[in-house]
From TrEMBL:
This is Glutaryl-CoA dehydrogenase. Residues 240-387 form the Acyl-CoA dehydrogenase/oxidase C-terminal domain. PANTHER family: GLUTARYL-COA DEHYDROGENASE, MITOCHONDRIAL. Its EC number is 1.3.8.6. Coiled coil: none annotated. Its cofactor is FAD.
């Protein structure tokens, strides 16, 4: 009886019963409610975020690893495994959940005032309110310290925000944006503060970014802040500097470490199924040595990625996971997932370039995943700094 790649590695035994049950629930939801629609969503470049979010809320995955305020308070590993199942469907769907739970909700949960938490978190956990996270700008992606978005206080004590954020997932459909802006409270990026911005505030707009060739089942936009006036209570009270947004990126990057395994697993399982059914000359493609060599090599990388994800999950659940360890996982698992997707596509040949199979959709999506949440080069530099003690960013 053939085994799946991860059965061969025996990784199931490393997952606790409760985490497995959560994973299975998410997998069943994805199979029934998400996967059947993905080719159409991807082709149309549209995804019904408004309808999907309440369903994801009922499933319990929005902010699932946070405690209180309507969140499930699961283990970090369970959150990772949920990301794996969501990304086995499509990176855009995992992104929806990452941005909502790990970026927008986590920012409010970790750094918000009690009033901000009460106002937004229960509705966001239920998928009734959609959040986005504005850090990147047109001229400042990898180097967010240089951001030009400004928040100044006027005589009445209100904040006034001006600037432009770019490539912001869910911005055009969001009810609330967590926006990071430079203040004049301190120099060298240390004056950066976070703001909770209801998207119906006058001066806020979020035009859609069109013609993406990757992550098409995800809404991406700009955020334009034209003298957006907010009460003093809109700012996160305590946190200053880049550690505010970067603490949120740690959460989302952790989800991607697992998510990338899901995308790669889906590609590999599709390629194995295809190879078993495709007859070349007089026998299945799966019976040829070249095919088996490809499948064996990809299985090695998939299994190693899974082991790395589970190890990082264990460290996070123990409370000892460090940012540079998350970089190891994000760099390796996304890089290997892209390599696996491309190799699987060769097994399907012409059939592999269509949306009838998920492989090229995953490969295209993974180009975005390689770039967002820190490019592969940024993660190499973070690891390099951890190894040498020298920063090579500047
Ligand atoms: P650096 O001088 O090293 O640090 C500035 C301050 O931040 C602290 N810090 C961290 N805190 C928490 N977690 C981390 N991972 C942290 N890394 C650094 C640091 O201790 C310092 O604190 P303080 O109190 O001394 O001021 O910063 P740098 O300016 O040299 O920047 C280096 C680096 C690598 C951190 C930064 O350039 C980087 O990570 N760039 C990548 C930007 C990025 O990932 N953007 C993602 C935007 S969101 C997104 O892409 C969403 S995609 C949708 C989805 O997720 O699905
Ligand atoms: P740049 O920073 O301009 O990088 C260009 C090249 O230079 C890259 O190869 C990079 O690795 C390299 N480079 C950078 N620094 C160095 C260095 N020091 N040494 C050597 N090489 C270097 N952002 C958000 O804030 N919120 C979101 O919700 C969000 N969603 C996104 C969704 C999608 C689909 C995409 C594609 C992006 C999204 N982003 C979001 C933005 C994403 O985080 C940035 O694209 C990413 O951080 C890289 O920034 P950049 O594109 O400006 O590239």
């Amino acid at each position: 009886m053939p085994q799946t790649p991860l059965e061969l590695f025996g990784t199931e035994a490393l997952i606790g019963e409760e985490d497995r049950a959560i994973r299975d629930t998410v997998r069943a939801f994805v199979e029934k409610e998400v996967k059947p629609h993905l080719a159409d969503w991807f082709e149309a470049g549209e995804v019904p975020v408004r309808e999907l979010a309440p369903e994801l809320g009922r499933l319990g995955v929005l902010g699932m690893h946070l405690e209180g305020y309507g969140c499930a308070g699961t283990s970090a590993t369970a959150y990772g495994l949920a990301c794996m199942e969501l990304e086995a469907a499509d990176s855009g769907i995992r992104s929806l959940v990452s941005v909502q739970g790990s970026l927008a909700m986590f920012a409010i949960w970790k750094w918000g005032s009690e009033e901000q938490k009460q106002e937004w978190l229960p509705r966001m956990a239920a998928g009734e309110a959609i959040g986005c996270f504005g850090l990147t700008e047109p001229d400042f992606g990898s180097n967010p310290a240089g951001m030009r978005t400004r928040a100044r206080r006027d005589a009445s004590g209100d904040w006034v925000l001006s600037g432009t954020k770019m490539w912001i997932t869910n911005a055009p459909v969001a009810d609330v944006a967590v926006v990071w802006a430079q203040t004049d409270e301190a120099a060298d990026g240390k004056g950066i503060r976070g703001f909770v911005v209801p998207t119906d505030t006058p001066g806020f707009s979020a035009p859609v970014i069109k013609q993406k060739l990757s992550l098409r089942a995800s809404v991406t936009g700009e955020i334009v802040l034209d003298e957006v006036r907010l009460p003093a209570s809109a700012a996160f009270p305590e946190v200053r500097g880049l550690k505010g947004p970067l603490s949120c990126l740690n959460e989302a990057r952790f989800g991607i470490v697992f998510g990338a395994v899901g995308a790669a697993r889906d590609c590999l399982e599709s390629a194995i199924a295809y190879a078993a059914s495709r007859e070349i000359y007089d026998k299945p493609l799966a019976g040829y040595q070249i095919t088996q060599t490809k499948l064996a090599d990809m299985t090695l990388e998939l299994g190693k990625s899974m082991l790395l994800a589970l190890q990082l999950g264990r460290l996070k659940d123990e409370g000892t996971l460090r940012p540079e360890q998350i970089s190891l996982g994000k760099l390796n698992n996304v890089r290997e997932a892209i390599a696996i997707a491309r190799e699987c596509r060769t097994i399907l040949a012409a059939a592999g370039v269509t949306l009838e199979y998920p492989i090229m959709r995953h490969a295209n999506n993974l180009e975005s995943v390689l770039t967002y949440e820190g490019t592969s080069e940024v993660h190499q530099l973070i690891i390099g700094q951890a190894l040498t003690g020298e920063s090579a960013f500047r």
